[in-house]
Amino acid sequence: MMFRTITTQGVAAVLFWVYLLAAGMAVYSAPAQAQPPLRVVYGFDREYPPFSFEEAQGKPVGFDVDLIQAVLKDENVQITMRPLTWDKVQVELSAGTIQVTSGMAKTKQRLLLYRFADRPSMPMQVKLFTKPAARVGNITLLRGQTVSVEKGSYQQRVLEEFGGLNIKLYDSKVEALKALERDEVIAYGGPAQTAYYYIDRLKLGPISAVGTPLVVADTYFAVNRDAERLLEMVNKGMLRVMQSGEYDRIYRKWFVPTFYVEEYQKMFEAARNAAINAYSPYSKTPVGAAVMTRSGRIVTGCNVENAQFNESITAIRTAVLKAVSEGEYEFRAVVAVAPDGSVQAPSAADRQFLFEFGRGILCAVEPEKGRVEMSMVSELLPYPYASRPESYQY
């Protein structure tokens, strides 16, 4: 009887556990449906190299194209890329036909129409460009001269507001730059990075920017006003690529010209010779430095010490100040050499000083004896002090 009772209870217990197991298996075998990917249409200006443009067979390429893919790569999104004219981009973003674009500066009207990312993707600079014979230190000295610009462009309006220029209009940025190459004009006005792209790509010769920018305006990713979820993804992705160094890798790919060994050797020798004139009675460590400008010049400097330490000037800063005093504002690379012939990395203050002139300046560093690397200043200064206004005009 006892055996019968136990058996009955045992069967009941087994059935109970079988029920629980079956229920558990049922729960496990029916997981929640995965969220479908968010469909995102990225509309971009098809004629804005090196930011966004089309290669052969219509392949989208450019800094902005690479950046949007890096920003959203960890998100559950399906991106479709759509090349458009810039006017069409703005209309379709407002209508919601496309959900995100790039390279957009903030204006009062645009803030009503679109939502902007928290962090800018790039500062856009409008500059004047000349050949070496017409280089000036101050852009006001070009007033009265003939300047080419793309007809109907934002840059045309900037030149008109600057005033005093004889503006000659052309159908495209390329034609306006070629007019400068053919000496039809004294200068060209346009966005700096796009101008340098065409100068290098079309081999237009020694044309470079002069003076300070006419306009600097931060540009952003912008999304349709109803795309709040997408905006959160963009903000999170921008923070990630900035912190991981991926932003700098993309930046270097598109905006930093190749730096050749022969150029480094010339700079190294120039820096070493500059140390002869160093004033270093306290440290007894004469240091020389050389900077290479975008126009191709090598300008040198040396350290100048002071009994009050914070009044001393490093060799790198001396070289940069000397270059600026001679009308050079754009720098490709910097090298500093210690008395023993080793490469001296820029100090923390030097890095902030250099960053003012661009994150893509290459700095020579020697992580181990005999091995020299050229690192962007932004790689050496990941969190620079950069509290300038979002935009300013000369």
TrEMBL record:
Pfam family for this entry, one: SBP_bac_3
PROSITE patterns: CYT_DCMP_DEAMINASES_2
Recorded GO MF terms: cytidine deaminase activity; zinc ion binding
Keyword Transmembrane helix on entry: no
SUPFAM superfamilies named in the record: Cytidine deaminase-like, Periplasmic binding protein-like II
Keywords, ordered alphabetically: Signal
SMART domains: PBPb
CMP/dCMP-type deaminase domain sequence ranges: 262-388
Keyword Signal: yes
PANTHER family: ARGININE-BINDING EXTRACELLULAR PROTEIN ARTP, MEMBRANE-BOUND LYTIC MUREIN TRANSGLYCOSYLASE F
Subunit structure: Homodimer.
Name of the protein: CMP/dCMP-type deaminase domain-containing protein
Organism of derivation: Desulfovibrio psychrotolerans
Lineage, uppermost ranks: Bacteria, Pseudomonadati, Thermodesulfobacteriota, Desulfovibrionia, Desulfovibrionales
